[in-house]
Amino acid sequence: MKQLLILASLLFLSSSLSAQDKKIPKLVIEKGQTYVVGPENTLFVDTLILEDKATIQFAPDRQGVLETKVVFVGKDCLITSRGANGKAGKNANPGTDGENGGNLSLVLPFVDLGGLTIDTRGGRGGNGVYGKKGQNGKEETRDVRVTDANGKTTVSTVTVSVKSCTDGGNATMGGNGGHGGNIILLYSAADFIPVFNHSKSKRNINILYQAGTRGRNGIPGKGGSLCADGKLLHSEVREAKNGELMLVNLEQQSQALLPEAIPIGY
């Protein structure tokens, strides 16, 4: 929390200096469109208009900053720096780790608000490999007829070849989830009160900053008859952490910290 307070103080200093040459007078992101922030991962806008289902995409690998003087937000809009999900394992490799969510610092003086989601969740770990089932051993036989000196014929079954059983294949573990990114949201709304984390309410702001979940471990393959089962190959396990959130109402100059992340399914 202390680090977030320091970042909030630095935000105004850095943004006011940086925005002088890079500020956009007006930016309209049309319905259903995605605006990808440039390589510096900062966006300074006098007037920002997000039409319904518009998205602003920040890179998750570095600090993202969005500062506006006024913002109009339609329904089901999204500001995100969510980390990418890991990839499923291949061969004898575990699933890859989910990417960490990026930290976001946002200054949003709302003039109108339909519904907005701010998402800095970590990516989900990739699933591990399932081991293949082993094959059972198999004997190949044939009948042999033998006639003795007295003319009596007997039939014997003899083994002519043997196919060995095979072990079950090894499985690998799922990848670690990515850490959730931190969010600093400085906001104001003169004519209405935003509702936080109630997606069915009007004028809602849903804030997601959870860690990504681990990928699913594979299951070792069952060995063929008289052969060994496969094993689960272990890899490094790291606990993914939720991000932190600080809300600052610019009108009231009050601060509120949500105590814990609200679980959201993937």
Write the layout of secondary structure elements.
Layout: H1 2-22, E1 24-29, E2 34-36, E3 42-50, E4 55-57, E5 64-73, E6 77-80, E7 104-113, E8 115-119, E9 138-147, E10 153-163, E11 171-172, E12 183-189, E13 195-196, E14 204-208, E15 232-233, E16 245-249, E17 254-256
Parallel strand pairs: 1-3, 2-4, 3-5, 4-6, 5-7, 6-8, 7-12, 8-14, 11-15, 12-16, 13-14
Antiparallel strand pairs: 9-10, 16-17
Number of self-contained structural domains = 1
General form: rod-shaped
Query: Pairing-aware structural class of the strands and helices?
Result: mainly beta
- As residue ranges, the low-confidence spans are 254-266
Question: How many strands in all?
Answer: 17
Helix content: under 10%
C-alpha end-to-end distance: 27 Å
Radius of gyration: 30 Å
Mean pLDDT: 87
Strands of the biggest beta sheet: in what spatial order? Answer: 1-3-5-7-12-16-17
What can be said about the biggest beta sheet? 7 strands, mixed
SSE order, one letter for each helix or strand: HEEEEEEEEEEEEEEEEE
- How many helices? The count is 1
Approximately how much beta-strand content do the residues carry? 35-45%
Keywords: Signal
Protein name: Collagen triple helix repeat-containing protein
Signal peptide: 1-19
Region (Disordered): 124-143
